[in-house]
Structures are given as structure tokens and as C-alpha cells.
Amino acid sequence: MKSVIMFLSFVYLFGCISPLAGEGGQKGTNIALIPMYGGLEKTEAQLELDKKFISQITEATGSREKGAQEFVKMGWKTFLAERNPTTAMMRFNQAWLLDPDNPDVLWGFGAVSGAMGKIADSVKFMRQASEKLGDNAMVLTDLGFSLTIYANDPENAETAPAVIAEAISCFEKAEKIKPEYEPLYSNWAVTLFSQKDYTGAWDKIGKAEALGGKTVNPMFIKDLESKMPRPAR
Q1: In the chain, which ranges are continuous DSSP H helix?
Q2: 54 and 95 in contact (C-beta within 8 Å)?
Q3: What is the CATH number of the domain that holds 128?
């Protein structure tokens, strides 16, 4: 119990000071909001804070790896439940500081970067996470969705066909691994819709609905219906 209390105390302490400790050398730049702190050089004061943070979290959790996993959990909770990508990025950066080899951190970087509108970064980190995590249907699904957004940016029109092909490949792999994963089909439907494959999109929506339909966006259904009526079952 004592170690848990210590850990929560450190979370509060470093959660409060991390925005200040993350300010970079460039005026107005908060490196705590950039994956891996942007690879920018830290000040002596920041490095000292990092050293203290690593030491105290390691003592509280038993190892840097365990500490990192706790911060990964906090990152996802902050991102998904609290809808706070700014704080989530700070937590994933703290996890990376503790354990740079944790693949879940890369996944977090990819998800939060996407929410911040940095789609190229999202794709980059999702790809890295997918390579490290291997047969993970959830990461593949997220990567497929990020690739779809990237491909539909007019600035990326030249590479869009290849990127969409990669996205479809991600969904196909994910389906083989975990066919009961509902978000896979909701995201896949969006990708097919973007390619004007409305029949295919309806097929994926049907699969998502058969698994509960919780991830099916009503606004997307309206958009799809405007392009093609729902096929009779």
C-alpha cells in the first residue's frame, strides 16, 4: 500500500511540473507535447528533473519498465476517457522516458498525434508500433484508419493509391487475427467509403452492427445512405 501511495504522489507531483519541465529552448515550444520530446536538447535543469523522475518512479514501482507501463495506462485513460490529448501526450512521453523500448508508447504517440491533427506523425508511429507488436489487430486497425486520413489529404494525392492499399492490407490482416473486433469494420467502412466503394462500406457496417454496432457513427450512416441506400438483407 505504501508503494502505491508513493507512486500516486509522484504522479501528482510530476503531472503538475511536466508542462514547465518540458519547455524547450525555442520560445513558446513545449517539448512535452511532442513525441519523444521532439528529440530536442534539454537544459541541465530539465535533465535533472528527468533523473529525479526516473529514480523516484523506479523506486515506487520496482522497475523502469513497470513504471512506464503505469504511465502508458494513464496516457490511454486520459486520451480515451477524459478526451485530453495534451495531457495524454505528456504521459506517453513520461512512459517513453522510463522505457524507450515500450511499443505501447509508440502506439500512444500515434493515436494522440492523429488527434492533434499531425497525421504524418500518426502514421509513422503507428507503423513502428505495428512492427514491434506484430499480430495486434487493434494497432493494425488504428494504422489503417490513420493511413486513410493521410491518403485523403489532397497534398498526398500522388501516394494515395499505395497508402489506401496499405490501409486495406492492415484491415485484412486484422480480420484474420481478431474477426470479432468491431472497430475494425467501422474503420474499414470509412476507408471504402472514401474510395466510393459504397457496397463494400455497407458490408463492413453490417459486420460492425452484428457485433453490437457501438462504434458505428450515425452521421457516417447518413452520409453513406446519401450515396447508396442500405442494401436489403
Answers
A1: 2-21, 44-61, 64-76, 85-98, 103-115, 119-133, 137-151, 160-177, 182-194, 198-210, 218-227
A2: no
A3: 1.25.40.10
Sign of CA dihedral 40, 43, 44, 49: negative
Residue 32 placed within a domain: no
User: What one-letter code names the amino acid at 14?
Assistant: F
Cell match 490511454: residue?
76
| Residues 116-138 pLDDT 10s | 999 999 999 999 999 999 999 99
- Tell me how far the alpha carbon of residue 80 is from its chain's centroid: 10
Grid coordinates belonging to 164? 489506401
Q: What DSSP line would sit under 93-159, residue for residue?
A: HHHHHH-TT-HHHHHHHHHHHHHTT-HHHHHHHHHHHHHHH-S-HHHHHHHHHHHHHHHTSGGGTTT
At residue 233, the 3 state secondary structure works out as coil
For residue 62, CA distances in Å to 78, 113, 127 come to: 23, 30, 30
For residue 124, being part of any structural domain is answered with yes
The domain tally of the chain equals: 1
Instruction: Quote the CA–CA distance of 61 and 116 in Å, as a whole number.
Output: 31
Query: What pLDDT, in 10s, does the model give residues 132-159?
Result: 999 999 999 999 999 999 999 999 999 9
